[in-house]
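Q: A small favour: would you put together sequence and structure tokens for a protein?
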Amino acid sequence: MSKICITSRGEDLQSEVDPRFGRCAYFIIADTESGECEAVRNPNIDSSGGAGIQSGQLIAEKGVKSVLTGNVGPNAYQTLNAAGVSIITGVSGKVREVIEKYKNGKFQSTDGPSVDSHFGMGK
């Protein structure tokens, strides 16, 4: 089983990728082998601080292998990296398309955060 997580603005595969990790609207957890998907509303979207760490812990607990998002800050990066989750940034488009591109090996892992702390706090 290979689970990936895509940050999303909505709760279905036609939704656009959310460019924020810690404060995205939804996490779409997709099993790339079975095709099963689960939408998880992000409980940290309005968090005053620590959203990246809390979101990273939530995703790590789901057994996700890779996170695909627009941007990831240093705290989220460290949390995910420590949990053995690979991070792919610079992702955009529809969730369904991103899953297909991932399955076809079109993405490479990031080797560090793509934005500074507190990115995405302004709505």
